[in-house]
Hints:
alpha+beta; about 30% helix
Amino acid sequence: MNAGISPKRRGEAAEERCAVADCAEPAVRSLARSEVRKAFPDLPEEPRRANLCRPHYRQFKKATRDERTLGRLDW
């Protein structure tokens, strides 16, 4: 009955790690790699999505705060 359904779609937690080098914490967010590279330029370019743990997600939010604010004001 599984028929190729990924573990995430079945509601099971897939264990993913943070994409930042030397970080082994579990990921809580998955963002576009091009956006995450603005805060962490040393990320590899391979996958399209970057998984971030809670502390690195907070660093990302702080680093891109001004850009996100200006993006919301545009519309």
